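Let us work through a complete example step by step.
Step 1: write down the sequence.
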Amino acid sequence: MYLNYETIKFEILENIAIICLDRPESYNSLNAKMGKELLEIAYECDSNQEIRVIILTGSGDKAFCSGGDLKSFNESKNVGKHLKMVTHDLHGAITKFSRMNSPLIVAVNGVAAGAGLSFVGFADIAIAKKSATFVSAYTKAGLTPDGSSSFYLPRIIGIRKYLELVMTNKVLSSEEALSWGLLNKVYDDKNFWEETLNLARKLSNGPTLAYGKTKRLVHNSLNSTLETQMELETKMISESAESNDGKIGIESFLNKGIPKFQGK
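Step 2: predict the structure and record it as tokens.
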């Protein structure tokens, strides 16, 4: 099933949502239209109960996302006001993806710069082609990071490494990004999409509600005390045990069977 958008290809394949940033003429850079469409798609993914996992990737072989479309930004009468509108939609989409039940796989198929690097940060699982590269690029244009970059990335790679990326605009290879902890896995270019779909299918057959609760547990832990976090763990695991998938999982475990989760 395909849904029509101007800057994004959006396909639902079985229970896998595939979001493909589709502005190859500008290396899939983010403009105002893409921000709005990404927010709309995020709401669709959150509300559609058939979707069990999401893949975010880019069109073509050269770029995943090259960051903001500075040319279109600069054509606006008030650049600051324009950027506020773009980031409002982008940040709304990021919040939605971060909080929803379905896991988000960010599949980096080329250059990830600026907002493209930010997308890697808020992924649940981040994978890349061997030929992919990563760069912050914000300060190169005299700008500061957005797209949750300053929230997630320092927590993933550490403050000093993050500041190094932002201040020096160091370009990381996929292997360097893997060693820094930015990525979960790097695949050969020729096998990349096959491996991406294999991972998505595996997650799509999992306990979607438990995945979502786990995501929220982890995000909450960043600003929580030990006691508050354990209280939330108690609440979440008891709710999970009473869910349809929880009952299926427990029964299958006790009977040494393979659970057929339904995402409910």
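Step 3: interpret the result. The two ends are 22 Å apart (CA to CA).
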